[in-house]
Amino acid sequence: MSLAQGEIIGRQSLLWLLVVNTLVLLPLYDKMTPWSMGICAICLLWRLGIFSGKVAKPPRYLVTALAVASAITLALVTSQIGMLNGLINLLILGYALKYIEMRDRRDVRAVVLVGYFLIAITFIEKQSLWFTIQLTLVATINTCVLVSLYRNSDSLRSTARLGTQLMLQSLPLALFLFVVLPRLPPLWLVPSANNATTGLSDEVSFGDIDQLTRSTALAFRVTFDAEQPNNAELYWRALVMENYDGKRWTQDESIKKIERAANAAANRKPPQGPFLSYEVITEPSRQHWLYGMDLAYSSEADILNLPDGRLYAVSRVDKKLEYRVSSFKEAILDRRLAPNVKALNLALPEKGNPKTRALALQFKKDHPEPKARLTAMMRYFNESPYFYTLRPPQVGPQQLDDFLFENKAGFCVHYASAFAFMARTTGLPARLVTGYQGGEWNRTAGYLSVYQYMAHAWVEVWLPQSGWTRYDPTAMIAPSRIDDGFDAFFNPQQSYLLESPFSTLRLRQYPLLNNLRLSLASIDYYWSKWVLGFDNERQSMILKKLLGDVTSTKLAIFMLVILATIGLAIAYSVGLLHFSRQQDKVVAGFEQICIMLAKKGVSRPINESPSDYYKRVLQHYPGLRETLNPYIDCYITLKYKPLSDAGRKRVLNRYRQTLHQARIAILRLNKTKIAP
Fold it and tell me: Locate the Transglutaminase-like domain: which residues (predicted)?
């Protein structure tokens, strides 16, 4: 049975589909399994062959077999890639297979609708301004497919113009709904994805932080309410490690239970004293931990203030999260230490690292007072020939002994581990803290950017009356790393830029391009703050500025007025509503001449052509021939003859001159009465 002529898919629609199919799937490449990628590539190449006339459409049984095999394969690997990624791959395969199987316009409409859905899915994780612009362009091209179904005779340019016009018409309504619709919690939870995001881990060993120093990914941004602290004060606490097995530091199970319970009763009490307030916008990490300077406290309802001084998000950070923090620099964390916590932070493996133990006991013997002992340990790192490097030599089973007495070169985790081990050996409770140190100041927008390569580890030692006190051996080995930042000590080309050839951070060495980079980053920051971070509080603030006291009546009237305005604009643009337009100046000039001649006794009937009217005027006023003849020639040329842009401009200039001369000639006529 042949298709009706009206249901045949035009070549222009097929061309638009070739383009949009690729653009829809490209942003989702990191979600696809190798099997899905292979099938999508086959479908795209097959459709390209169909478009060029080289191959025929695949038989239905082949498409069905591929669909069944794809579904079985996804069912087998979903436990590995996560439920969300499994469902996304299923939809992608359906999109690709339907693409090569489509036979009429109904199939094209189905493909286009699934395309819109895949574009929306991309927004689950990719919400930056640049991805939004890219996906808006893809949605516009997807709309052009629909336009081409019904206007196949139009040129590609006309189709693109109409598709763009339709998208632009939808923007005011989208903006209005974005501002006025209430921010409601989701009606369902998005299934989890098993892919990890670059960032800190809840356990650390030699070399772990080193891996992060090769990443240029943004970790979070900070905006301070007051003056920004200096770089040496920018210690961003994220995780606290209290268990040590001789090779690896991990979180204790007791704090993990508090995290899992997510009980507000476990919140620390708000500290007292002077504080520094700031706002943090963290990037998606797929973890719960948040960042703050000591001693950090947040009053946000969905953030816990854990007993170990950390901030913890009740829900996993799967998208950009904005929260406010106050840091109490002079506050004391754990003025008194519980016996079980003290025992935990004194625990060491029974054997191992004998040289390090002996060195620690020598410090205890020489410096019985705890603070003096810790100061001596810090001075030891400063005065001994130790080196700070991102590529330390390998260590054997006795890690700390090899590091302290053989290699004498390491990164922050090496020095922090050795310092905490020696403190515990001498009877001082100590633990490892990981987070970030420093930041890049953007003066254009007034915020601080903290990147993954700024990851850092330091030590906290508990002292009577002082509580947990920070000690950072890195400041003794490489003081410029702490005082001036990561880039002041390490060469970016040999660290975080080594595996990022296309990172925009490479532009720092070019002042003009770096200013452009910071300006673009500022735009992205404002996008994160005012669009992705647009919550009920900001919504209320904007509505209050627009309406004053927000009442139900005011809000209803505001919504009706905006919707009516948008409706009228759309109706006018599609031709359902017409307004009187300004009259053509050429026609207006001719009508003015007709009115002037009518006052002289020669009226023009509505059905009389300009040429006939001109002849009749000359019968009564032969003296106007020299003036009216060039005017009428110009008028007829402009109205009825095809002209180039340059030709029309030239004739229009001549028309204005002859119009002016004709007016003067008519005004000089003596009024003559014409017999009927």
Answer: 404-475
